[in-house]
Every structure is written in structure tokens, then in C-alpha cells.
Write a structure and sequence with these properties.
This protein is α/β, with parallel strands linked by helices. Helices cover about 35% and strands about 15% of the residues. The strands form 3 sheets. The chain has a 5-stranded parallel sheet.
Length: about 230
């Protein structure tokens, strides 16, 4: 794989265990080309309190000063309702290098078809409304919801992502969706991002499954989001 990076790291500001400088050191030790810090937005139970959002940016900047690799400031913003609204204000997102969004909660139902349709609606509206860079762990919420959507629904979503310039994440933690989804992304011109979803130092850069997935679907460096953010 021509690119090895990790654009999904959680620090002690949300539900991670370490501060940014230590995580950057771990990333450098594992040969990563770049990292992005993506602590959870404030509406998640383990999210970063609103009053600490700017403190995250200050700590990331300090880590960047001593880093030997590019360090990006990001957040894993939560899609909070059916209208696709996220839990961080546009004023804050303008300070970020990269905006990641994710869905962690849906309305109360255990029916996977209903969950999949609700997920699709929220995801679609979220990327229609904002300039999103990465959609995290797509279609995974306790289960892989993609099998409950039609081929047409999936293709329409991927084409929307391509039109809006939104990358789909190959997430090491959940190992979903499967190869067919990522191959479709490549055919439609959707770039891919790599994320360990690390919450500890030991997890930083542990992306073997993601790299294997990218090899299987024939992804090349130019198919990945990395070079768009290297300076």
C-alpha cells in the first residue's frame, strides 16, 4: 500500500486515554505519514465538552510543533437528528483542517431495515448541508446496516458523496462495510480514508485490516484522501 496514515484518533479530551503529543510519538514510531485527531463532538455521552473544544485545537497545535509528520486538527462530529444537523457550529469547523462526521445514535427501533433507512436519510442530509471531508465508519451502528439497503440506494448515496467530495472511511475498529462498497466508491470517484479509531496508544496506526482491504479492492495512493491534506 503506497500510503499509511491514520485519520481517526481519540484523545483524553473525549474517550481516549492519552494526550496528542504521546499519540503523535506513537504514530511516528509506527511509520505513519500523517495523523488526524478526531475527538467526539459534545452531544455524544463521551464527547468533548463545548468549553474544551478550543483547548483541543491548542493542544494539537503544540503537538504539531514538535511532530515530524503532518498533524491535522479534526473532530468526529455527531449527526444529531433527521435533518442531518451536527453537534458543532460552523464557526468551530472553520478552524479545523478536516471535518469528519459520524452517526452514533438513531431513533428507538431494533428493526434493522428501519435503522438502515433512518441512517441513510441522516447521512444523506448531513453531507448535503455541510462541507464534510470524511464520513466515519459508514453504515455501521452496532451492526453493518448496508445489507438492508437496496443497490440503488447505496449507489445513489455513493454518487452523492462523489459529487460533494466526501471520502468514506475504511475503519479498523468495525471492519465494515465490505469490499463491494469500497470498490463501488472507487468506481464512482469517492476517495477513501484510513482510520484506526484508536482510543489508546497501542491502537494508533494499527490499520492492517484497512490496508488489506484497500489492496483487495485495488486502491492506489491517488484514491486516498491523504495527499489532499499534505502540505
Amino acid at each position: 500500500m503506497p500510503a499509511k496514515f491514520d485519520f481517526h484518533l481519540h484523545t483524553s479530551y473525549s474517550d481516549g486515554t492519552s494526550a496528542p503529543p504521546a499519540m503523535v510519538e506513537a504514530a511516528e514510531a509506527r511509520g505513519l505519514e500523517a495523523v488526524a485527531f478526531t475527538d467526539h463532538g459534545p452531544e455524544l455521552s463521551v464527547g468533548t465538552p463545548r468549553e474544551k473544544l478550543d483547548l483541543i485545537l491548542q493542544d494539537i497545535e503544540l503537538a504539531r510543533e514538535d511532530a515530524g509528520i503532518p498533524v491535522l486538527a479534526s473532530i468526529e462530529a455527531n449527526v444529531v437528528d433527521e435533518r442531518g444537523r451536527i453537534d458543532v457550529e460552523e464557526e468551530f469547523t472553520k478552524k479545523l483542517d478536516l471535518l469528519m462526521v459520524a452517526i452514533h445514535n438513531l431513533r428507538g427501533t431494533n428493526d434493522r431495515l428501519e435503522m438502515a433507512r433512518d441512517y441513510l436519510m441522516r447521512a444523506t442530509r448531513a453531507i448535503e448541508q455541510r462541507e464534510v471531508n470524511v464520513f466515519a465508519h459508514p453504515f455501521f451502528l452496532h451492526h453493518d446496516l448496508l445489507p438492508h439497503l437496496s443497490r440503488e440506494e447505496i449507489e445513489d448515496f455513493v454518487r452523492l458523496a462523489a459529487a460533494r467530495g466526501v471520502a468514506m472511511e475504511v475503519n479498523m475498529k468495525y471492519k465494515a462495510p465490505g469490499d463491494e462498497f469500497f470498490a463501488l466508491c472507487l468506481r464512482e470517484g469517492v476517495k477513501l480514508s484510513i482510520g484506526s479509531d484508536a482510543h489508546t496508544l497501542a491502537e494508533v496506526g494499527r490499520i492492517d485490516w484497512a490496508l488489506a482491504t484497500l489492496r483487495r479492492v485495488g486502491a492506489k495512493r491517488e484514491d486516498l484522501i491523504l495527499d489532499s491534506f499534505l502540505r
